[in-house]
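[step 3/7] inverse_fold.run input=structure_tokens len=210
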């Protein structure tokens, strides 16, 4: 895909949705971090159904530790891998209290040092909570980047690196959300909704649907 096409692609996505937002429900950087950790191998919808009651009881790392693993796990039972995630939420909350005074660090290395937090989760927190121009490559972005020819790669790390290089700077702040939403609702896995797609004429996918 040429630089001109990439610029036009993001221009159209911005025109359709100038200020995209995360579909996860949260009020603070800590709640965002918890929601993103819970969203691994789960849908945002399932996370949003579980977190209101959890956040009512544990809106801070200190409160999460006080709530305890058993009660945290009980509140997230409807989410995949809930036992592992329950352990991670307690462990990361303890580390936030011990090393960061209960605050969420705006630093990639510090975020990735938290239990249950990998590069993708760190990228989401850095982008959404702190406005950094990062791109968290999930299954949707990986599919869109490869299918359209925007930034083809064999793994998420390669796609991320190519997207950061290929995305015009003016679009980097929201590129993450635009591409996720495109993959979630239009450029879906089994049968992409090409007739509804705003960038279909820029896309290099040969199997376009009609």
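[step 3/7] decode complete -> sequence:
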């Amino acid at each position: 895909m040429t630089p001109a096409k990439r610029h036009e692609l993001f221009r159209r996505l911005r025109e359709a949705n100038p200020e995209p937002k995360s579909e996860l429900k949260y009020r603070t950087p800590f709640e965002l971090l918890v929601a993103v950790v819970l969203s691994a191998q789960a849908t945002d919808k399932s996370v949003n159904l579980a977190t209101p009651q959890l956040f009512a009881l544990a809106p801070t790392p200190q409160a999460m530790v006080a709530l305890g693993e058993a009660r945290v796990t009980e509140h997230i039972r409807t989410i995949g891998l809930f036992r592992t995630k329950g352990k991670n939420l307690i462990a990361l909350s303890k580390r936030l209290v011990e090393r960061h005074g209960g605050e969420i660090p705006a630093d990639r290395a510090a975020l990735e040092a938290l239990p249950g937090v990998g590069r993708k989760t760190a990228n989401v927190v850095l982008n959404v909570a702190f406005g950094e121009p990062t791109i968290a490559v999930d299954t949707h972005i990986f599919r869109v980047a490869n299918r359209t020819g925007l930034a083809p790669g064999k793994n998420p790390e390669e796609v991320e690196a190519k997207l950061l290089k290929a995305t015009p700077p003016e679009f980097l702040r929201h590129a993450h959300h635009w591409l996720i939403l495109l993959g979630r609702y239009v450029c879906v896995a089994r049968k992409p909704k090409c007739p509804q797609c705003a960038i279909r004429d820029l896309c290099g996918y040969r199997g376009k649907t009609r």
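[step 4/7] annotate
The CA atoms of residues 10 and 170 lie 9 Å apart.
The chain has two domains: 3-20+135-196, 29-130.
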